[in-house]
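Researcher: Good morning. I'm working through a list of sequences from a screen, and I'd like to move beyond sequence-only analysis. For each chain I'm collecting a predicted structure so we can compare shapes side by side. This is the next one on the list. No need for commentary yet; just the structure.
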Amino acid sequence: MARLADYFVLVGYEMDKRGSGDGQGQILQRFPEKDWEDNPFPQGIELFCQPSGWQLFTERNPPTFFIAVLTDINSERHYCACFTFWEAVESAQPQNHSRNGEGEEEEEESSSPVQPAQLFAPKSLVLVSRLDHAEVFRNSLGLIYTIYVDGLSVSLENVIGNLLTCTIPITGGAQRTISLGAGDRQVIQTPINDSLPVSSCSVALLFRQLGITNVLYLFCAALTEHKILFLSSSYQRLTDACRALLALMFPLKYSFTYVPILPAQLLEVLSTPTPFIIGVHSIFQSETQELLDVVIADLDGGTVNVPECVHISLLPEPLLQQTREALSMVLDPELEVADLAFPPSTVSASSLKMQDKEIRAVFLRLFAQLLQGYRWCLHIIRIHPEPVIRFHKAAFLGQRGLTEDDFLTKVLEGMAFAGFVTERGAPYRSIDLFDELVAYEVKRMRAEEGNKQKILRHIKELAEKLYKNENPYPAVTMHKVQKPTEGCHLRLHQKPFPRLDEGTVQWIIDQATAKLQTAPPAVKAEKKCMVPSGPPIAAIMERNGNALANSARRLEVVRNCISYVFENKMLEAKKLFPAVLRAMKGRAARHCLTQELNLHVQQNRAVLDHQQFDFVVRMMNCCLQDCTAMDEHGIAAALLPLVTAFCRKLSPGITQFAYSCVQEHVVWTNIQFWEAMFYCDVQNHIRALYLDNNEENHTDEESKEGPQEVKSALEIASEQLRLWPTMSREKQQELIQKEESTVFSQAIHYANRMSYLLLPLDTSKNRLLRSSGLGDVESVSNSFVTNSIAGSVAESYDTESGFEDAESSDVANYVVRFINRFVDKVCTESGVTNEHLKGLHVMIPDIVQMHIETLDAVHRESKRLPPIQKPKLLRPNLLVGEECVMEGLRVYLMPDGREEAAGGNIGGPPLLPAEGAIFLTTYRIIFKGTPTDPLVGEQVVIRSFPIASLTKEKKINIQAQVDQFIQEGLQLRSCTFQLLKIAFDEEVASESAEVFRKHLHKLRYPQHVRGTFAFTVGQSPKQAMQPKAKEKNPSLRTLSKNLVKNAKKTIGRQYVTRKKYTPPAWEQRSSQHFSEDNEDEISVSEEMDRSTLTSTTTIKPSDKMTINHLVERACCRDYQRMGLGTLSSSLTRSKNEPFRISTVNRMYAICRSYPGLLIVPQSIQDNTIQRISRCYRQNRFPVVCWRNSRTKAVLLRSGGLHGKGVVGLFKSQNAPSAGPSQTDSTSLEQEKYLQAVINSMPHYADASGRNTLSGFTSAHMSSSGKWGSIRASGRMSSYALNVEIGSRLAGKDLLSAQHNGAPSEASFLRQHRASLYIIGDKSQLKGVKPDPLQHWEVVPIEVFDVRQVKASFKKLMKACVPGCPSTDPSVAYLRSLEESEWLSQIHKILQISVLVVELLDTGSSVLVSLEDGWDITTQVVSLVQLLSDPYYRTMEGFRLLVEKEWLSFGHRFSHRGAQTLAGQSSGFAPIFLQFLDCVHQIHLQFPMEFEFSQYYLKFLSYHYISNRFRTFLLDSDYERIELGLLYEEKGERKSQQVYKSIWDYIDRLNKKAPIFFNYMYAPEDGEVLRPYSNISNLKVWDYYTEETLSEGPSYDWELVQGQPEHMEEADRQDTSAPQTKRKIIWPCYDNRSRVEPDAISKLLEELHNLEMELGQVPERWKDTWDKVKASQRTEARQEGSRTPSSLLMSSGLSHHRRSLGVYLQESGVGSTLNLSLDSDTSSTSTPSSGKQGGRKSTSTLYSQFQMSESENRSYEGSLYKKGAFMKPWKPRWFVLDKTKHQLRYYDSRMDTECKGVIDLAEVESITPGTPTMGAPKTVDEKAFFDLKTTKRVYNFCAQDVQLAQQWIDRIQSCLSDA
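Model: Good morning. Structure tokens for this chain:
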């Protein structure tokens, strides 16, 4: 029994404090005055009586009633029923009270003379109770008020005394009638089961106010511990809403702050950090605005507001949907039938009380479904003295398949659920509705899913039960309570509530208490029973059958593989192994693995041999790899006993267990996992303890799996708990002790287990274990075994083992701490005694220490094991003289971002990852190995690149194989567009990897150029590092010494008076080389001694030899070819030549980076040159490098001008000068020099007004030439030169002049064409004023600097050879290519070059004077010569061009290629590669103009950075002479086989095979090429993207010769199967040109082989080729104008003169060009068709299209064509093209865009047709004909029969011709 009410309190307004702002309440009286012992009086009641603050009112309000809830310190709830009414305040001081409320104040002002208004103060009657009987409280307080108001003749003291002494039963559905002694009667019903909440109508009201979705949000928010705030203007509703929310949460109990009505004074509680459910009156709404993390529900407005920062996890689907549907069926039954034509008349919702229970039933079902099977995841750890129960959360989530679900995870982690486990986990207790539901009805709920009727029926059944629980006796409600008369609160003269007599009340209470003490206590027998568990989760959650069938096959594979392993059929096992590893992704397969392995364990041991052990360990690792740290599927738990069972003998007495190889998984460091495992084991042991020995059953160890015939632990526990009270004291003690020691022994066992899995095999390496329990797996070093048997990585050379070291190791401390933490937690939870716990703490360090010692022995032995047979390391082929620096390190070559090799989207075999070794030689880094994929395991994969081309090396961590862990690796990037991404095998010690990196670095950046491979080749690597090698050839050495000494003498005498600028770093770099020759350092000063540089040109005899050598240089040969003077003429100074060869630089004294002999104007003296040279950067003054043989215009090159020079040359002459007119004289000389160049041009003499550019055009245009467009901007569609050149130069994108373009345009539109254009860098030519009197003109252009080239090249490499596959579309290949801006740089270079070609071709000379004159200048100058002069397009000419412009004129190959240590910081700048790429672009556009092939360009691109040849080493001729490279004596070279010059090597190869030759070479005389430079016309060079994995780069020709033949023969011998002729050529693997050579190469090769067979000496291929060509020409002549024979080279064949755009057709041999190229016809823009990215169908484009294609239109006309299946007939314009052998069609005659092509080669027959549906009606049916091709049949229809016949004949004739 319990008291109905504990306290009665009278609270009133505190009058004394009236003047002070806010009013306050005070307790006027309380009964009983002394606190009950079991229930102290709650504090702060007066706050809750007026939650919005105490204040006076001007009118009487009707009485109010509400219930506030207070929670005390023991989390007991007290219900405070407040009944409030208003009493008049007697106004003692009339003026004073007005401050106390706002209402009165206004009134007072309005009517001051009148008597002040009467004021009313609130007074509350409060009942405090621990029971929640709202109605009874309302009635009782109402009765007291009625007695007072109506003045009934009943003593208030009596009524209150009776109220406080009334006792009622708590639960059990009893019914009790009470009376308070005022002629009243009330019936109190108690709920049957007090664990179910009582809600009357509150839940239904809550849904009415907020709606389904909102309440669900609140429900989820409350369960996931968010803060919830209710707002309403009714206190009663706030209380109801809060009560409803708690009722919905049943069976979970809310355990945080719960305040249904929060008083104003306590509003700051809302900013508490903990979750809460609070109600607040809506007048405080504004104060709740700034709460950022509170979910606010406005009951009056029906809204729920979830702030942005709060994320509420909702119920998992499908539960959420099902709950919503069920709720709408209950709340809105009309919804179902709303659409029916004849809705039933009787559908209506239940009464509010019933609806309330139905809603609760829905939520009860929801919880039953959420928590079904929860009892199977309870671990009972102790039964006596009281049960200790733990919930295995991970297993529950795993079995439910909801590990990812946010909501459930949060609920299970929450406080409410912890309480739920404590309360409901106990196996023996009384049970309620929820227990029955979750145990017996889950099956039914699964079955009824989706059937609305059945679901509704179930809900109604549950609702009935809930209703019955609250109202056990529905009929009897005979309340009789007096109510006050209507409107009594408005009576004017109501006397105040009387003061009660405490004594009377107290006396009544005392009597009642005395009576209770004498009465016997009412004991309610609790009905306890065993709590039913319900079906296990597995039985409920059946999976769909399809997946099962699929996995059954997988499980079979797993079982077979394991049985093969244990039967020692290793080959079979190996084959199945990849499939097993793939199967391990599935949970079933992992469970299967653990079960199968379990079968092979006898007596806790299974000793395996090494291979078996390895397989088992790999499977275990793979199995664990997909486990999360939670281990929700219990895989790690099942493996835990196995890893300590499987072992192998390493040597007598030393055994290695599997655990030492499976430590690298995050699950072992998760303390929750260990706890769950521990509890699970303890439960099994406790269960075993209580099972009688006779029914002991060993088979069923895991009490969790499968339905039990045997009793589960919970059943045993409940049985024990039932018997407990009946046992004797001793028996109880004995059981408690047994249980405790069971737990203790398990704790020791687990301390051991944990040390096994946490201590690494090699404890001496203090591996940085994750600092906390859970860390990232990556940071852990790898003590892990896969295909090596060695237990661990073959560690460093100096692994110290030993006790002392290990003792101090942090690993041991870490493990000890981890285990201690675990032991503390589980032992305190499971009640282990303190002595035992202390003992454990003492034991743990010893356990760890002992284990470390055994591990040391194991580690030592495991390193001695022979590794498992890995693939043999394949030795790479080396070049002659190439030596291995480091033997192969076993590595995996990992796939990078290129997809081809890895299979990728393209398909094809996954060649990578491959397993092999990395070799470091003096020349290359080579990987050679075989793919790990067993299906392509026979292939060999080679990837290599020259060390000198290494641009970036970084350490990476990668996972080499699926079943392995992270290994250290390297990513090596090369500027030959190759990437080696390697992972070191675990047998490679990290030291070896370091040594590899150091060697690599040393070889990549030698101290001096002498250290590069081109020099060290053939010597042993040790000598390579010595600076001086003995010279074989003394004369050569002395020569170069003399030369250097002379140069130093010349430079040595210096003026020290003043320095104009400090020599650039380049000079200092070259000077470092001397110090190695142990001679004094030299430096260059500006002012040379005049006497050394006299103007005489007579050469001292001592220099003769030098000169002879200089004459042999390439430049000299070229000068003579162009007639730019011979040496003799320069000695005798013949005046008629405009230019002479000057020897002024023969000692490299004027310009270190120029060649010794230079071409200068005849009239200029050598000493003038010396002065001029100072105006230019690096002293690179203008020299002539080429002359146009037709217009005699010359091309000059120089470095950019220094500031002073520019000032002198172009600015006003009166600039203040430093010395005695120093500047003036220099600049005058400079002018004189330029003038001399201009004078040399023959047409200069008559360059008067007549010779403006426009006059010159016609002459120019008729000259032979090919036209391209220089500009991509759309302003100039025509390229005719009648626009003045200058204006074109000023075009936006080339020169980007001032923005308005006006000044530059104006300056260029002069009438005179300049004789000399100086192309200079815009930034240097700032402020230059054009001088109309001079004959030269400055063209400022913007160029990119070397930095930009470097950056662009880096991006290009990343785009073409990405480091890893990108998932992000924003870094797709084309986009990153565009961002690299490589093509736009090429566009710029080509554009400038074509411009210069133009100018030279129109007869102006050009001086290119950009940057230092050795990067872009060189690119432009070389391209100009290549485009203008066909000679440079032969092999000999190209070589000469490179030697002259790049080598002699000092392009800094060593510096730009970062070939030595000094250049390391500056990095690699591919200026020469960019030039070759430009040549490649021109080659693509003019495939017939070059004697050499694309392969030749790739070959040069590869070898100019490979350092295999000496050709491209060093920065200038001067440095080469200094090293004695330039002039090798005649006899020397033949002695060795090693080729030092790339040119010799190319010559030799070219004699042997036609690899560098372009079969399409058919040049025209004097052809000037003008390539298109638009980006749309440029192609990405395949050199950047292709690779050949079968043999590595094909540019070291000796290495790849003769491999394929052997391989094929070998294949043929061992395949007895019928041979096929098919060859499979894999992209990126085979060298296509060799596996499947082109026809001509193949014929030449066959010819060669036949001659060999016949024993003849084979002819050189070139001779054969020339013969064939010659004979073919004669044939063509004899046949005259008949069709030319079919060999490609015939000049008679029409072919692309240019591969994009314009086609030329030649008929017969003496053909003229049918498509003339003069200015008027070809004034079209770039002929790029739409596909090429040009602009579509402008008129110009159209005229061009007609031009080019009209020749190829053999016959054309209009035909109807039937579309494909189900499409109509349409008229189309057809063109029959015999040349291309195709039938093209267009939409109309005017259309330029070809709509389709029918290849005549595919046509099988042409037959008369029949009209089909939709054919033109008017046409004769004989006009139809069909064209049958291999792909489909085309139906045509002509206008009439004749036309049809004509078409048929034409097509037939085409077919027969072919």
